[in-house]
Each structure stands twice: as C-alpha cells, then as structure tokens.
Amino acid sequence: MSTRPCFEWIKPRHDRMPEECGVVGMYDAGGAPVSEALYYGLYALQHRGQESAGIALSDGRGIRYHKAMGLVTECFSEGATLKNLGNGSIGIGHVRYSTAGSSQVVNAQPLVVRYKNGTMALAHNGNLINAQHIRGILERRGVISQTALDTEVIANLIARFSGDDIVGAIRRTMEYIRGAYSLVIMTETQLIGVRDPGGVRPLALGRLGDAYMIASESCAFDAVGADFIRDLRPGEIVVVDRSGLRSIQTETPPQSHLCIFEFVYFARTDSVIDGVSVYQARENAGRLLARSAGVEADMVSGVPDSAITAAIGYSKESGIPYGEGLAKNRYVGRTFIQPQQSRRETGVRIKLNALRKNVQGKRVVLVDDSIVRGTTSRKIVEMLRCAGAREVHMLISSPPVVYPCFFGIDTPDREQLIGARNSVEQIRAKIGADTLCYLPIEDLLKTVDGAVCGFCQGCFNSEYPLDPDAFREFCPPLE
Amino acid sequence: MSTRPCFEWIKPRHDRMPEECGVVGMYDAGGAPVSEALYYGLYALQHRGQESAGIALSDGRGIRYHKAMGLVTECFSEGATLKNLGNGSIGIGHVRYSTAGSSQVVNAQPLVVRYKNGTMALAHNGNLINAQHIRGILERRGVISQTALDTEVIANLIARFSGDDIVGAIRRTMEYIRGAYSLVIMTETQLIGVRDPGGVRPLALGRLGDAYMIASESCAFDAVGADFIRDLRPGEIVVVDRSGLRSIQTETPPQSHLCIFEFVYFARTDSVIDGVSVYQARENAGRLLARSAGVEADMVSGVPDSAITAAIGYSKESGIPYGEGLAKNRYVGRTFIQPQQSRRETGVRIKLNALRKNVQGKRVVLVDDSIVRGTTSRKIVEMLRCAGAREVHMLISSPPVVYPCFFGIDTPDREQLIGARNSVEQIRAKIGADTLCYLPIEDLLKTVDGAVCGFCQGCFNSEYPLDPDAFREFCPPLE
Amino acid sequence: MSTRPCFEWIKPRHDRMPEECGVVGMYDAGGAPVSEALYYGLYALQHRGQESAGIALSDGRGIRYHKAMGLVTECFSEGATLKNLGNGSIGIGHVRYSTAGSSQVVNAQPLVVRYKNGTMALAHNGNLINAQHIRGILERRGVISQTALDTEVIANLIARFSGDDIVGAIRRTMEYIRGAYSLVIMTETQLIGVRDPGGVRPLALGRLGDAYMIASESCAFDAVGADFIRDLRPGEIVVVDRSGLRSIQTETPPQSHLCIFEFVYFARTDSVIDGVSVYQARENAGRLLARSAGVEADMVSGVPDSAITAAIGYSKESGIPYGEGLAKNRYVGRTFIQPQQSRRETGVRIKLNALRKNVQGKRVVLVDDSIVRGTTSRKIVEMLRCAGAREVHMLISSPPVVYPCFFGIDTPDREQLIGARNSVEQIRAKIGADTLCYLPIEDLLKTVDGAVCGFCQGCFNSEYPLDPDAFREFCPPLE
Amino acid sequence: MSTRPCFEWIKPRHDRMPEECGVVGMYDAGGAPVSEALYYGLYALQHRGQESAGIALSDGRGIRYHKAMGLVTECFSEGATLKNLGNGSIGIGHVRYSTAGSSQVVNAQPLVVRYKNGTMALAHNGNLINAQHIRGILERRGVISQTALDTEVIANLIARFSGDDIVGAIRRTMEYIRGAYSLVIMTETQLIGVRDPGGVRPLALGRLGDAYMIASESCAFDAVGADFIRDLRPGEIVVVDRSGLRSIQTETPPQSHLCIFEFVYFARTDSVIDGVSVYQARENAGRLLARSAGVEADMVSGVPDSAITAAIGYSKESGIPYGEGLAKNRYVGRTFIQPQQSRRETGVRIKLNALRKNVQGKRVVLVDDSIVRGTTSRKIVEMLRCAGAREVHMLISSPPVVYPCFFGIDTPDREQLIGARNSVEQIRAKIGADTLCYLPIEDLLKTVDGAVCGFCQGCFNSEYPLDPDAFREFCPPLE
C-alpha cells in the first residue's frame, strides 16, 4: 500500500501540475543524522499534501532517497526504509497534494538529479507561471523531460547556469522563473532555502541544537522540539554548509504577496506565518464575520475541521453559544470506495453527520471557510435541515472565490467556481441556506493585521502579484 | 498493507483478549445486495476499533467472507474485494480494537464456522467473564480452539446446543455465558441480534427500505440513510428472516448496566444510545464540571477530539470563553515510526501541539475525559506551560478510574492505573497541574438523565453488574 | 504478494479438498534453532505444492507460526518473518498444492490448535476417504469447523481422544480415519511423524547432527545436509522428544500401497522412496516403453520437465538418439495473465515451444508421463507438426488414467478423464499423434523393482488399497 | 511484491550500469491493441532479465507506461495494470537483468521522455563504451540526469539532434555513441528498431497479421504466433508507421560482431539468431568438445539448464550414454533467504542436488557452458564425488573467459575471473576435477557455422569489435 509503481500518462504537451505542498530541510553541523527529524517534520506538514512523500539524504558524499505514493506514515511504514537512507546529516523532504488523476510516483518529490557539479535534490512548494514556456524553450534546445514538475524546469536552469557556485546559479534561475516557489535544495554538502520575491508561499527557518531547519510552517519545528528563528524574507536565499548559515537577499518588489488562503484554510492552526498566528487570524475572521453578518440565531457551529476556529470567534463576538452541529468521521483514507449501488444518495453523511439532538429546533449559524463548487455546502445545509434545524445561516470566513489561482492552489476552472458565475443571492438559493454572508475582503485583510508582509488576493479580485498573462511566456534570452 | 499473514503466538493457556469493537448486520427482504451498506456502516463505526475489519455475506445458500488487518478502507481498499463477496442480501461486519501485540488476522471477526445445520458467522462486541473457564471445560471434552476469541466459545456453545432452531441454541448459550456481549449472528438465511441481559454494550435496530439493520451505534444508520427504530433491550434476541422480524425477550435482571464510558469517550457524538444523545451527555458533563469545579480562568479548552464537547459545555456553564488550546495532527496511522535517535523527548508534540498565541499568558481550563496512566496528561500540562499558559487547570469529565473493566474495555492492570494508587492531590502533583478536578459519579449519572437503562460504574467503584470473581468459573453442567 | 487476506466461500456442506502436499518436521536435541532448516527443507519440497506454505515453531513453551499464500520464498520473503518465529528447536512445515479456486489462507497448514493439554500443530499430506463422514458425526455432536481441511477432523479426533498421552490419542485416531495420510505433528515438546497403514504417501526419517528430521521426500534432507536414515513404515508412529526417538508400530495390512504416481511424475528425481530411486524408476519406464512400443524414429524427446528422464531411458534402450524437441519457459508464476484479446490461439506455446531446427523433417518419439484430459497433448503434437516434424509418436510412461484418485491427488471427474471414456486408438486420433502407446501396468510395476512396499494402482485399475465406497461412511462408535 | 518504491543511491559520478536485457516492440497497422502481445513477448524474453519489466503504449496521441521491479508476471500481476495502459496499437517493452545492488525502479525501462517533438519511449539492450564520457560533456552543457542508464544519454542525444525527423536524429546519434545497442524506440506514431553497426546484440523482425513486431529473440514471435521475417542488419534502422515499414541502412564496418555468448548460454534454445539455431550451436559445441576432449567415461551429464544441450551433443558424438547427474530446484525466486545460522555449508545443494543412484560408481563427464569465478564448479564436482561418482571430468563448451565484456554482459573484474589468472591445469586443481577441457575458440566458431555475421570474441581473446580504450572518451564535437 505504501508504494505504487510509476504509472503515467504523459500527454504530448502543456499539462499543468498545480499543487500545494509542504517542504522541509535540515543540516546538522554536528554530523548527527537528520532522517528521523525530517520524518516527524514531514508528518507535521502532512495537511499540506497527502498524495506522496519523499526524503533525500546526503552523507556528504552522495545522496540517497526514497519517495512513494501515500501518507508519510505509509511511505515509510517500514522502519527499515528510513534506516536504509543512512545516517546523513543533511536532508530534505516533501509532501505533495493529491490532485485527481495524477497519482504518479514519477511526479513525487524531492527530485534528485545529477548535474555537472555532482548531485542535487529539490523540493518545491508553489507553482510557476512560465514553467511550460521555459520547458518549451529548453526542449527546443534539446532538453528532455521525465516528469510533469515545475521543479524539473528549475533543476534544468540551475544545472545550466551552474559554474563553481550553486548559489550564483540559483540567483540566475530566479531571474527566469516567475510565480510562487518556496524551495528547499540540497547538494552533497549544502542545504539551501529559497523563497520567491513575492513571498507567496511560506518558508521558515528554525534551529535544533547544532542543526538548522527549514520548513513550510513552524509547526514542523514544534514537532521535533526545534525553535522557530524567523521566516525567510521574500527573495531570500539561505545557505547552510560547513561555514554555517549565510543569507543572500535578491532583488524584490516593494510589496510581498503571501497567499492569504494559508490563513483561511490551508496552514495548521498552530503555525505562525510571517508574524501572524493562523489560529488568531481564523478567530479574527469569525469575529469580524459576526460584526458584519449580524444574524440572529440559537447556536453557532463550524464545518470541521478548518472552520471550527472561525466559528468560535463568531460565537465569542456575537454572544451566540458555540456548539457542535456536525460530527466528522476521522478515518478518511486514500482508498475509500465510492458508493455505487446505493439505494439513496448517502452523500456527504459518510464523512459528516448532523448532531440531531443539538440542532433540532434551533436557528443555526454555520461557519465555513470558503465555497468552491457549492455542492458540499448544499448537502450540509440539507443535512442540518433534515436533522431538525429551524434555520441555517451559512457564513463564510472569506470572500467569494471568483478567479483561479496560478500560484500553487488547485482551483477548478472558472465554470465550476460557483462564485464566478453567481451573485451571493443566487448562491444562497442554490445551497438552500436562509442566509449567506461572505467576509468582505477588507475584513479578511484585517484578520492578518500585524503581518510583516503583503497578501495575494488574486482569487478574490484578480489582483495577482504578477499578471499571469504577461508572464506566462516570460523568458529572458538563454545563451 | 491492508492485509497481513496470520501470525500468532498461541500461549499454552489462559490468554485474555479484552476488546471494544463495533458490529453491524443487515437483512434485505427485497433481496438487494447489502455489502456496500455494511461497508459504510462499518466505516461509521471505525472509532470503535481500528485493528482489523471484516464482512461476511450470505446469498441464501452459502457464506463468503473477507477479513484483514487494518482500517475498513484498507481491508477493502480494492473495490474488487467487496465485489467478490457477491450480491448477498444478508450480511454482518465487524471492526476490532487494536490492543498492542495482538495483531493477528486469525483473531479478526466475523468468525465463520460450519456446524451441524450449515454455516454461521458471528460478530461480537464485549467481553465474557467466564469464557476461559468454559473453554477449559470444552477442551476437556475434546474441543479444539483455533483463535483466542470469546466468540469461538460462543460459537461452540451454539453449535453444541443446536437442534432444529438456532434461536433455542442461542437462548441456551445465554444461560452459560456471563459478561458483556452484543452479538450479530448470521446463518445462510437469518440475521440475529443479541444483547446481553445486562445491556452492557449498545446495540440498535434500524431500517432502510426493505432492509433491517443492526448496529453498535445509530451513527451507522445515518451513514447509509437508514432510520433508527429502537435499541435492543437487555436480554433481547432479534431474528430477521423471510418471515420478517421477531423479538424474543430472555430473562433479565431488574436493572440494566450500560457501560457509562460509552458516553464519556467511546461512542461517536452523533450517536444516541438507550435514549441519550452522546453529544448531550458530554455537554452536560462539561456543565456539571463547571458547577462543581468553579475554577477561575481566562479560557476553556478541551483535549481533542473526545473532550471538546465537554469543554464547550464547561464554557457555556461557566461563561469562560471557549478556545482551542491544542492542535491535533489528524494523520495518525497504524504504521507510525516511534522516535529512536531523538535528541530530546519530542513526546506528545507529534500528535498534539499547543497553540502558543492562544494560551500565552492565560489561565487555562483544560478539559479531558479521563486519566488512565497519567503520562499523557503530564505531557500536555507541560506543553501548555511551555507555550506560556500562566495556569493550567485540568478538569476531568468523569470520576477517577480505580478498577479494571471486565466487560470489554482494555484497561491496564491496577498498578498502572494512576487513579488506583494515588489521591487526587497526588495525581495533580504528578501531572503538574494547578488544579485537578474529577466529575463526581453522582454528576456523571446526571449527564445521562432520561436514559431508559441503568449503568455499569464498575471502573469507578467496583460495582459491576456481575461479580467477576463469582462468575469467572461459572458454568452450568454441560450434558 | 506473499500474503493474502483470508477469503473464503464456505459451502454449506460436503466440499472436498483433495490435495498433494509436502510436509517436514525437525527436532534438535541440542536446542539449536530449526527454522532455517525447515525453510530449506520446504523449499526442496516446493514441487509438491505451490499454493501456500507455512512453518510452526515451538520453543518448548509455546507455538508460533506463519502461513501465507504463495511459494515458500514468497511467504517468507522477508527475512524478518522467519526471524520473528524465534529460536524454537522443534518445528514443522507444510507446502500445499494449488487447486483452482481454493486459494484461501484459512486452508493453509500447519493447522495450529489449542486443546486440553496445550497446543498442537499438524501438517498433513494425503486425503481421507471418511473425513466428511466423521466431520458430520462430530458436527452432530456440536463440533464446529473453521476450515475445509481433513486435518481439522484429525485434530478434533486427537483432541477428543487425548488423555495424558498424545500418542495414545493418535493411535485411537488411526482407528477412525481411513485413507492416505502422512502426518507431522508437533506439541510444545514433541515431534511426531505418522504414516498411514497403507503407506500411500511417502514419509522419511533423517538426521542432522543432534537433530532428527521427518520429511515427505529424501531430497529435503539433502537440501540441508542431513542424512537419510529410513522411510517410516506403513502404520508407524515416530515420536521425538527429550528422551530421544521411539517408534510405535500400529497394526497394518499385509501389503502396503505406496502411490505409484509418486514415481511417475510427482516426486523429485533425486529422491529415494521406499528403497526405489525416483530417477531410476523413470529411466526404467522409458526403457520398458522402448521395448514394448518399438516405434521407428529419428529422435526421442521428452515433455519437460517430468518426462525427460523416461525419454532418456527410451533413447538408451532403443538406440534412437535423444534430443530436445521442446523448450520450456522457466518463469511460470502464480500470477500469469491469461490471454484474452488474442488474435489466435497462442495455446501452449507460451509455456512450451518447439525447437524447429531440431525436429524439422524428423520422425519424433515424444515421451510424456501421463495424459489426463488430453488437451495439452493435442496442442504439443500440433506444435511439433507445425515445426516440421514428419511423424509424432506419443509414448506415455504409465498406463491410461481411468479412475479417480481418492488418496490425495486432485484428478478431474471421470467425464474429463480422456482415458475413462476412450479407447487408446480414439485418444490417439483425438490428440492427432501417429502412434500412441501407454506403458502396461505390469511394466510400470517393474520400474519400481526392489521396492520394500506394495503399490496403489487405483487410478489405472480401480484396485484401491481401501474400497472408497465401503469406507466413505466408516466411523466406529464415538463415546 | 510486484512493485518497489524508487530507492536509489546516486553516486556523485561514473557509476557503470552494465546489463543484458530483452526488448520488444509492436505496431499494429489495423489499430488492434498490442499490450497483450507485448506481455507474452516479454514473458518469452524473461530469461534475458529478471530484475524489472516495463511496457509503454501509444494510442497515437499520447504514451502511457508501467514499469516495476520483478518478473513480468509480478509487474503485471493484476490484469488491471495491463488494462489501464489502454488499447494503444503501438508499444514497446523491456526486461532488465538483475545485477546486485542496483534494484531501482528509476533504472527500469522503457525510459519515457518528453522532447521537442512530443514524447518518446526507449528500450535498450546493450552497453555503450562512451556513455559516461558523453554524459559528462552533456552535463557540462547544463544537462541533468535522473537515471544511471546509457539509454538516458541516447535520449538526450536524439532530443538534441531532433529536427522534423526522428530518424535523422537517430542517425546522428549513432555517429556519437559507441558500443552495443539494440534499441526499440517509440514515438506517439512510430515504432523504430535500431541495431548497432557491430550487430553485437540480436534484434529481429516479425509479423503477426497486420502487425510488425521487433524483438531481441525470435522466441518472442513464437510466443504470440507471429512469423519471423529476418534479423535486423548491423547498422540498420527500421521504421514502422502509417506508411508501413521502411529500412535505413547506416554505414557499417565490413565485419559484424554478434556476441557469441548469446549461443553459449544467454539466448533461449528455441531462438534462431542471425541464421543460426541456438539449439544447434549448443549441440555442435558438445559434439566438438567430444572430439577434442576424448575422455573415457560411463555417462555424460550437463549442468542444468543451459548446458544440457551441449551434453546431449557430447553424448551423441562420443557414444557415451547421456544421463542426468544433477536435479535442479525450479522454484528459485528473487526473495530467497540466504543461509545464516546453518550448521554446515549447504552450499549449492539447495539449487542443485546430485542424483546419487545415477552417478554412483560411475566415471562422469559433466558438461558446463562456462566457468566464471569457479566457486560453483568446485561445489558441483564435490557434490558428485560425495554422491559416489568415481571420476568427474569437467568439459566446458566455450573457451576460458579471460577478459571483461564492455558490450552488455556483466562480467566480474579480472581479479575474480578464474580464467584470467590461472592456467587450465590450475583451474582443474582448484575445482577438483579429474579432467578439465575447454572448447577451443576455433571450435566454438565452428558451432555457429552458417551464420550471416561475424562474432565478438572479446572475452576470450580481447579482440573486441571496438577498442574500449580508444573509444571510451570518444565524442565528435557537439555544436
């Protein structure tokens, strides 16, 4: 179960591989093995991707890796697998988001390649706008591709630009690639972290004894008892090697653009990103929603798990008591058999179920973090009504998603985005709620007050950090 | 991964196999296949046991089954496995609790045996006090055992007592066995539910179109859209066959003894057992705890997931705002690699992590459902303090567990039960909390007000429904 | 791959489980571990059964076992599996023949059961005539069955008859069971070998240093460097324990009935059974066939692998040069995908292929060991003709199989036995050969000249060691 | 078991990946699916490589593939895997030889890559002398490597040279690469076969209805009922597409150099390569050995399986009767557990065992195809002596292997080649034989009389088709 053969449909051209992922890296100056810390770190980042996991390790002379489909615990289900990677004191790891139909071990990361100066391993969170374009240019110059990963384009550029110094090659690569990227790169002797100039995806620096650690979220540090030092700055390259840690700041635009959805639903509540507690941002969102929505109700409930915190905030602000309205089955796995011969639509009740005794006869405020296609919301509202809820008021702790994401979140096409083609009132009618309120974007930005960064709000208002159309075919001349 | 070979250490004698499990059964009078509903039903009962799962199906002529180690979704990870069981319209299923070291597919259920009148399959939740004794008597008469299951003893007795009618044999079997048992039994043509005279374990009856359904908890009915009809009565046998449903009431003591821990932490919040909503009971527990404890604090938090509801009740009653103090990693699997080379005790932070921003500088009331050994509680308290909590008040929504359970819950030996050898003050000191309060047993009983049953409180006060010592060697003469 | 979940279709009654299997046992008086020798011993007996394999080990206090579907190397593919069985110095093992449709780990052996005096493990080669009958009687007395194995009936009888002494119980059991059985039985402290009074299946005794070994064939001794001591006598029980080895001779009929098919094709050529070399018997068969058939030809060839030796004998006797006419693909596995969309009947060419250059223009004598259904023979003849053979003379090194086997070989029903419903001339026409000759039974008996036993020839002439009809319902009174 | 995660130790540089493999390709002009024929074709070539297997399929628009560790039947053990590849009517397949320590799915073939004109898949049998050198040059120009395969170098060159026409790119690639290569290449719309100018590895063309087939050996055609058309000529490129089949002949040296070891032991006896029957060549070798050796003996035997045919030839020529002296265990798998705690050296007896009854007291001529390290030969001689052979005369059907192979066979280093450092008399003494004779090289060449090609005899006399030292760093200028 922990592995699958590599099985792939390589389309002739132009397949896109959008993804939200988690990355981690570690360098122990004292020479202690890092594989176990990487395992726990990845495990703490599991919410960022459940499709595949991988760890690459260097013992200073060569790089060994293991990657496979499935959860971290499945990929490394046999202790032997982790042990076989050896005692390397430099390593990186990656978890990948599951997008339908792309379950291919060939696309798992880290990507390990040999290049002129030895071997490098790369783990990437984000999405490049111009990866396909650069890939095409490279291919026209005779380069072959073996994966559908943006990461392979990055590896090709670094290899092509490499002189004596990989950092110089990374700097040049950053002049070519446009989009979101938080990268952890390893050579036989170095650990390198890179955050794109927009700072779209998070990346943080930590310390555990003699070791430096780099990870997508601070919760990975907590998992192994490491201390959070600071977030990487947009456009920053951090290099850890025998001489210790050094930072290179590349040119960046005046304003950064952290993806605000990291706070809405993607990151873990116990993480702190660019100065803002995810938990706090979600509670704030609930409070602000309460102020703007002002619905009368008997109880406030949240869709588990990501909207619970906002629901609690709502309750605190509104004074309406918080209560659980939905029970969630915790045992959701990759291998769930979809209903086929079912007598009636069991729908969403397999994963969620209404708490009849708790909602019966009540006017329920139900907080959710977002509505994408609207189908799940419709089923949840119906389920609460069947359980006897007198009124169901759906309050969303973010604005309507109207535009696609080009920076690493796998949003559906615009036709499937219910927010793109319907007014709020139309959506309310479709999902069958008594009320539907979204959090205005101004309020959403208030939830992250105190942040040391700016925010990307592209999916709400198409104000992207980079114009996708302008940069989709961006590529400075390659000699 | 979804299956393991049968691998077993059969000790010469007297090994005990305590367990909490989930059972489900279905009979479709219209002849429709039941395998899918059983799958979803088992999946809804997954919280009752994660070690192994199995389904047995009858098409009216023969019984086919599949059982394996792992979660329901792992055991039936390939749709083909479920399909291979065929279109039988009678079936039963079982999930089993994982107790360390007993991971043996030979002990998975349903147990399928051939006997004089054909084939029967049995799924059992509970624990018999006198199973070992009866097994010994049977062995002395030449019977062989192939598993360590109480269920095998039950199957032997039913087979031995069988005349023309299996119901008569079950009635006679009930005169011999003592302890807790909720049984779902299937022959080629019948589905039978049995609840022990003490009513210690739950068992409920539901209906979906032409089909009757029997399950440990009502949430299994919700999962497939079935309607809850009623709980089986203590001592009741329910038979479903071509002639429909009939009930046989065996003799029962005046008072029943439902395990109150089903409400404290075992059952799912959306289930209703013997007239009481699990959710309601837990919220009540929190409220009563607030009244009896009366701790001053800035926030109330619960240990996820089972104590969240009580914490919410506490908050409502006390007026102290509810907030999340701990984040839980949802991706806990069977194959988690235990820390070995770790630099420091990562402890419980891998599965739980404090929400620093939320607890910093605060006086925190932390609600948990019970304390068994005390080690986890100590780590959680320490974690909250490290995260900056000014005070940590531990409030337990049940009384101290002082005595072992003989009726299906796998409690440790008394030496390991922290409540058995320490005063509340000693426990408080050991776990390092500022306050430790337990819910008094009188209050716990109030949480289930309105129940149509009595309750077993043996683990709190040794008032068991049956004296284990008196009945451990109970066995009426076998002809 | 090495394991499958237990998946079974238990028919209401009377399913038969015919099988040819291999058994091995070992007792090391010096206390040395025996698991590795059992593994190699089983591996040497792999030709006797490829469906499942298992090993049970006793360390003097308890019995541990592992069994799974597949080849020995698959079942124990991870060294850890063998290691986990521990350092027991008593052990038994079993390989089971693959009969279509019965791939069920629940029917794998050894069968390990608890009974009044502790635990016993049984490994069985052979088939009982009256197992179903006794099973029925036991079931009427309340016994349950969990497998379809004759071995379970034997275990029940031994358990039922056990007083202080298992040997007495085995003796009594032998008074009840009728048919073929070579048994290796283990308790926590004893290794026991049993051969049925007819001596139908082989069983031999060997020695390796301080250890005694029991095995179906002597090649298992060679594999571990053990010395062959002697065959067990028909009706003999051999017990190895702390006091060393002792033999109990039970009553036997004047003549024994070793299955002559062991020499025709079942046993390995390097084994010696009851005084006769399998290799020698096969070469003799070829020589006698040459004398009786007297076909003129240019080359003699054998169907690989089992008929090669007879073909060589034929060549030696006739002076016609031996040559290979067919190449065999050695990589036949359990998981071979059957042709579905094939353009033409690829037939048997996937496993066998004619050596065109060698047979072209030649008159070919093709020796095979037996014809069962005739379909394979027809394809082979056709293949040789397509490859240019001028004449194809099919010579069979045994008489026509006309009757079913009741003693452990899985022969098809009489309707499918081509020999049962056709004259030799009709068969010749059906398979398309120029000549078809069988070895007369008198000659077959000459091939095993020097044997210390008699032979069962039931499948040729229905002269069974026991009349199946007379004993199918045999069962002395059970108290 | 059929798959393993990709797990790899990428050494910093210069690891060599010598291999003998099997390739197959098919193009069905009628649009019929080819996956099943490829499966059976690969299965027929299984003897050429047991480490991994893979199939890539094109439906005219895109390429799908599956590859995994293990035998063909293991990699495609689930029919679904083959079905998931779809109904493509163009496809190629590959089986790979197992060299110790390189069990890495990343090195399995076919290699599927995207390049400027779409996607191509490559399957390669052979070894390039200058692959490492070209890889280095490519890397210096910025190319990255993801595997250790020569095939990746070939793919890079083809991609780099590709204009409109892949055939032109292949022709240019052939000007760069030096060594042995039989290639099957597929684009979305073409099937291409390439044989190196030396013709070192075999490659043949066949036909089945509307389909062309290309395969390493003709036995792959027989397996699916296809007709052998002809061998590819050294330096020939064959292209099959919508317009049918066309052949391009590139420049070739006057003499070709087919690896003569294909006849000695590598190919299957039923194959015909470059006009010579493998079977015939082996029988000839035995006959010539008999003429040159002239040993007096009582029986002739061969080491199974590859030396049996030569032994039969020896017998025919010498008149000494052929007999089996050794029995072979047919169930050798990848997962065999090596002896650890063994009491004595069980040695080679697990896979081979002497037929005592057949060799006892006899003077035995034992024919083997080659001696590499000598350890196995020593054990076999000893085994025959233990079994009572009076004399053991070892006759080898090829000359001593004295030099390493650079063209695709994984020979050990010269220090381990017993023939490289010892006289024939010294070797005889080391292996303990009474006689040791090798077949002189002149005689070996006679065994393949009638061949339409020349032969590489480099391992015997260092007369390689290309001087490895001269070409190891060969690379014409890359623009």
Structure description:
Four copies of one chain form a homotetramer. Chain A is α+β, with helices and mostly antiparallel strands. In chain A, 28% of the residues lie in helices and 26% in strands. Chain A has two domains: 21-257, Glutamine Phosphoribosylpyrophosphate, subunit 1, domain 1 (4-Layer Sandwich), CATH 3.60.20; 281-327 and 348-448, Rossmann fold, CATH 3.40.50. The first copy, chain A, has 17 helices and 24 strands. In chain A, the strands form six sheets. In chain A, strands 4-3-5-2-11-10-12 form a seven-stranded antiparallel β-sheet. Chain A has a six-stranded antiparallel β-sheet with strand order 6-7-8-9-13-14, with helices on one face. The longest helix of chain A is centred in the middle third of the chain and has 16 residues, at 278-293. The N and C termini of chain A lie far apart (46 Å). Residues 1-18 and 341-345 of chain A have low confidence and may be disordered.
Concise account of the structure shown:
In chain A, 28% of the residues lie in helices and 26% in strands.
Q: Total strand count of chain A, please?
A: 24
Total helical elements of chain A: 17
Query: What's the level 1 CATH class of the largest domain in chain A?
Result: Alpha Beta
- Give unreliable regions of chain A as ranges: 1-18, 341-345
Kindly, what is the distance between the CA atoms of the first and last residues of chain A, rounded to a whole number of angstroms? 46 Å
| Gyration radius from CA atoms of chain A, angstroms | 23 Å
How many structural domains of chain A? 2
The largest interface is: A-B, 73 and 73 residues
Trace the largest sheet of chain A across and list its strands. Answer: 4-3-5-2-11-10-12
- Residues in helices of chain A, as a percent range: 25-40%
Major sheet summary line of chain A: 7 strands, antiparallel
Proportion of beta-strand residues of chain A? 25-35%
